[in-house]
């Protein structure tokens, strides 16, 4: 049987950490497959997806700028799982032997697994504060849905919060999602049991914590989505205050592990993938 082909489509895709993680997983399970980088320009996305089966591709990850366009293509020419449909974005595609194609989104479930396993935080019935209302915040908020008691959202760009609110209200009880302006910032944060940083602040060595650590209260859990550095100022400050805090490597790992499980039907070798991810991150630093 020919080697199975998988890969990531993006534009650009040079710095993707997925090949290291996925190739290590295939190797560990003795699956004869390779995971490649596909730099696809936006106007060529549709043709690429249409021809994927003919090119013997069995599965794909989709990254910037294609996640929404891929969902639109699959609405017309394939199927979407419930989570991808609700979010309106696809980050994983499975191509069956008969050429049928299905889209998924593993960002929300990946975050959830990491939240439970690494941070040991269960969001059901809790108050959650999400800083930033961009793509990653959408994936998390739309996956958590109605399960938290309240989701506070703050962003420097009010239009982004409005966009998230409108989207959320289409599927869930809109009263649970609360827009936080400057005046409510402190009280909302105080009311939260989990703080999630979905802004890019923390990616650069010189970045401060996106929220003044003097506002962190006892018992607050902190999830910082930044994953390109071993730690961030936010996580360091939180840890020094004896709070539970993690960076986003776990979300990255688990979104990949869930994609692997969708493609292969096998349980992902998470420890192997984690080691490969750590090494790839180190060599990128
Ligand atoms: P994005 O779409 O640009 O969203 C970030 C949002 O945060 C933007 O709306 C931005 O507003 C806002 N923001 C920036 N500074 C802020 C501040 N001080 N206070 C409040 N809001 C602020 O980016 P994204 O794709 O969601 O990614 C965000 C971060 O998450 C990146 O670091 C990315 O690497 C990380 N991420 C991690 C994972 C993982 O697996 N761990 C997955 C996805 C993303 P403006 O646009 O006006 O600046």
* Low-pLDDT residue spans: none
Question: Span from first to last CA?
Answer: 38 Å
* Share of helical residues: 40-55%
Instruction: Indicate the CATH topology of the largest domain.
Output: Rossmann fold
Strand order of the largest sheet: 2-1-3-5-6-4
The CATH H-level homologous superfamily of the largest domain: Leucine Dehydrogenase, chain A, domain 1
Count of DSSP helices? 11
The tally of strands reads 12
Q: Characterize the overall form.
A: globular
Instruction: Tell me the name of the CATH class of the largest domain.
Output: Alpha Beta
Largest sheet: 6 strands, mixed
Describe this protein's structure:
With 285 residues, the chain is of the alpha/beta class. The chain folds into 2 domains: 4-105 and 252-284, Rossmann fold (3-Layer(aba) Sandwich), CATH 3.40.50; 121-243, Rossmann fold. 41% of the residues lie in helices and 19% in strands. The protein is globular and about 60 Å long. It starts with a strand and ends with a helix. The model has no long low-confidence stretch (mean pLDDT 96). The site of NADP nicotinamide-adenine-dinucleotide phosphate has 26 residues, from α6 and α10. NADP nicotinamide-adenine-dinucleotide phosphate binds at residues 107, 131-137, 154-157, 160, 198-201, 203, 210, 225-227, 248, 251-252, 255.
Features:
alpha/beta, binds NADP nicotinamide-adenine-dinucleotide phosphate, 285 residues, 41% helix, six-stranded parallel beta sheet, 2 domains, Rossmann fold
């Amino acid at each position: 049987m020919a080697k199975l082909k998988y890969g990531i489509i993006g534009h650009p895709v040079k710095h993707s950490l997925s090949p290291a993680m996925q190739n290590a997983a295939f190797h560990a399970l003795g699956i004869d497959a390779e995971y490649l980088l596909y730099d696809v320009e936006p106007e060529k996305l549709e043709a690429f997806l249409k021809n994927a089966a003919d090119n013997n591709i069995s599965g794909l990850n989709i990254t910037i700028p294609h996640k929404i366009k891929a969902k639109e293509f699959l609405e017309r020419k394939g199927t979407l799982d419930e989570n991808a449909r609700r979010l309106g974005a696809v980050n994983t595609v499975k191509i069956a032997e008969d050429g049928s194609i299905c889209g998924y989104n593993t960002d929300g479930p990946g975050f959830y697994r990491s939240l439970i396993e690494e941070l040991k935080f269960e969001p059901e019935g809790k108050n959650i504060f999400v800083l930033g209302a961009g793509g990653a915040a959408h994936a998390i908020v739309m996956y958590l849905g109605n399960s938290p008691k309240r989701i506070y959202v703050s962003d420097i760009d009010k239009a982004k919060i409005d966009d998230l609110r409108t989207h959320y209200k289409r599927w869930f009880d809109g009263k649970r999602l609360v827009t936080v302006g400057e005046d409510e910032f402190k009280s909302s944060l105080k009311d939260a049991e989990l703080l999630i940083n979905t802004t890019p602040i923390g990616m650069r060595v010189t970045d401060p914590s996106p929220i003044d650590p003097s506002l962190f209260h006892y018992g607050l859990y902190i999830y910082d989505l930044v994953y390109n550095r071993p730690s961030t100022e936010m996580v360091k400050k939180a840890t020094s205050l004896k709070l539970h805090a993690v960076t986003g490597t776990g979300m990255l790992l688990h979104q990949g592990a869930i994609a692997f499980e969708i493609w292969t039907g096998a349980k992902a070798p998470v420890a192997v993938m984690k080691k490969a991810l750590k090494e790839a991150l180190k060599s990128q630093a």
